[in-house]
Write a structure and sequence with these properties.
By secondary structure, the protein is of the alpha+beta class. The protein is built from ten helices and four strands, in the order E-H-E-E-E-H-H-H-H-H-H-H-H-H.
């Protein structure tokens, strides 16, 4: 299991090192363009894969088996010359202690993704400067993935990574691209990172730790105890939901976890949580079909 060591660190850009933290699959779907065989798309896919997986994003050393599994599925809807626009679906997961199970942590769809790219253009991350929107968006999600993964292993363990993602968002506002400001809607990158760092949504980050480290990671030895903690983590969302109903973070949580929650409470030892179905329907009504007949 990944060592629970969260040190204050300084990012020095796209450094050369051995700390590659991610095992990330990059897929570019170009069917919407009608020109999916263009070499620029293959080059971009390969360049992004190298950029994400071969950059040292932190000063921590990760063994190959400790790298975070994630994916970025990019759909190009339109392009003209060196200008591209589309969507990016970002997902990450982590192993469950004492089992062969892999649990989803993050599942987010960003439909405000546009960038300029010239074939064979180098992709390099710099902490201090904005180079282009492609690098900024990808780097933003790298640090968001790192933050969420860290939050599942230690209480608020991802703060330093969220702060770096927030710095990227602030710097990228100068680009004028969609997704980086408060005016870009409730599903923007701006809203995502602002909410992750806001005291108004602390239950989300607390739930990440409780659900994963204190819940899933103990189920191999005590399934009932694990289920109780997971139920508590979910029920603790009610206070957050009362302050901001249908928040982006709440939707993000259940977009990643709805199927897994269904499996956890659809079988195994029963626990005394008579209001859990009602709570789930209140928190995530779009998944009402999942919540039927849960224990």
């Amino acid at each position: 299991m990944r060592k629970l060591l969260f040190l204050i660190f300084f990012i020095t850009g796209a450094s050369i090192g051995i700390a590659q933290e991610l095992n990330c699959e990059i897929v570019i779907n170009t069917e919407q363009t009608g020109q999916s065989n263009l070499s620029v798309f293959r080059t971009l896919e390969n360049s992004l894969s190298e950029f994400v997986n071969q950059t040292s994003w932190t000063n921590k050393e990760f063994e190959p088996q400790e790298r975070i599994s994630c994916s970025m599925f990019i759909t190009i809807n339109e392009f003209e010359g060196e200008s591209f626009s589309g969507t990016i679906q970002v997902q990450s997961s982590r192993p469950v202690y004492g089992s062969t199970m892999i649990t989803p942590v993050f599942n987010f769809n960003d439909d405000q993704f546009s960038f300029n790219y010239r074939e064979y253009q180098p992709l390099n991350y710099s902490q201090s400067t904005f180079s282009n929107n492609l690098v900024s968006v990808i780097s933003f999600y790298v640090y968001t993935i790192l933050g969420m993964d860290a939050d599942t292993f230690a209480p608020e363990g991802g703060t330093q990574y969220y702060q770096e993602a927030n710095r990227i968002a602030n710097t990228a506002q100068q680009s004028g691209r969609l997704g980086w400001t408060g005016a870009d809607g409730p599903g923007s990158r701006f809203r995502l990172i602002a909410d992750l760092l806001s005291n108004m949504f602390t239950e989300y980050r607390t739930a990440l730790y409780q659900y994963h480290r204190q819940g899933l990671d103990v189920m191999h030895k005590d399934p009932e105890a694990g289920k109780i903690v997971i139920a508590d983590a979910i029920e603790n969302f009610t206070s957050m939901n009362s302050r901001r109903a249908n928040s982006l973070l709440l939707r993000t949580f259940f977009d990643a976890k709805a199927e897994e929650v269904t499996q956890i409470f659809g079988g195994g030892p029963e626990i005394e949580r008579p209001a859990l179905n009602q709570t789930l329907n209140s928190l995530a009504p779009r998944y009402a079909r999942n919540w039927r007949n849960l224990q």
